[in-house]
Amino acid sequence: MANTEQTLFAKRFRGFFPVVIDVETAGFNKETDALLEIAVSVLKMDDDGLLSIDQTVHFHVEPFEGANIEQAAIEFNGIDPFSPLRGAVAEEDAIKEICKVVRKAQKAAGCQRSVIVAHNAAFDHGFLNAAIERNNIKRTPFHPFVSFDTTTLAGLALGQTVLAKACRAAGIEFDNSQAHSALYDTERTAELYCLIVNRWQELGGWPLAPLDESGDDEAAKEPKTTE
């Protein structure tokens, strides 16, 4: 555990390992609507504390038994849930493999728990949690409720909340014709997240000035003067 606390990655997010995710679904209800596609990008940190994409895993997913499929949803994302050309795998297999990949990367980074990063994170996180519960997966690296939302971060850093507009504002190429693919959206979201975190560091936002043992920062210890 001592080694975990000493890694630069662990220090950056208080032991959390950010994992970027995107899902494509057959509706908005995480309990009833099918998960059709999921992709996850795990990140790496260099010796200067800068983030980049390490690897991305991606699965087309078979609708779970009894899943609801909203016609409007599949018309929007262009997915044919029952096409044999998708090469879809069982939901349980996809989630277990993702957990395996993430757990290995989390351990290598010296972190204790993985945290979902997503654009409008509550949606993706909700579908992931529902799939984990539905398939009775007990050993999961993911924090059950903490997430980092690039919608909020992009609004703060770039003045944009739509993924495509935020990427373009950040100088990241975004092809609308490839959007609403879990693989494409995950990697663009990962690039956006890394850019914002790295830029914050370059501007001097991290690491912050150390606190003294009482919890007061150095500035607070300066004697006050009166006119």
Explain what the structure shows.
The protein is an alpha/beta fold and 227 residues long. 38% of the residues lie in helices and 20% in strands. It has eight helices and five strands; from the N terminus they run ααβββααβαβααα. It has a five-stranded mixed beta sheet, with helices on both faces. Strand 4, helix 5 (121-134) and strand 5 (142-149) form a beta-alpha-beta unit. Helix 6 packs across helix 8. It starts with a helix and ends in a 25-residue tail after the last helix.
Q: Quick recap of the structure?
A:
This protein is of the alpha/beta class and 227 residues long. 38% of the residues lie in helices and 20% in strands.
Structural class: alpha/beta
Largest sheet: 5 strands, mixed
Q: What is the CA-atom radius of gyration, in angstroms?
A: 20 Å
Estimate the helix proportion, in percent.
25-40%
Helix tally equals 8
**Unreliable parts:** 1-5, 215-227
Tell how many strands the DSSP assignment holds.
5
Order of strands in the sheet with most strands: 3-2-1-4-5
Run of helices and strands: HHEEEHHEHEHHH
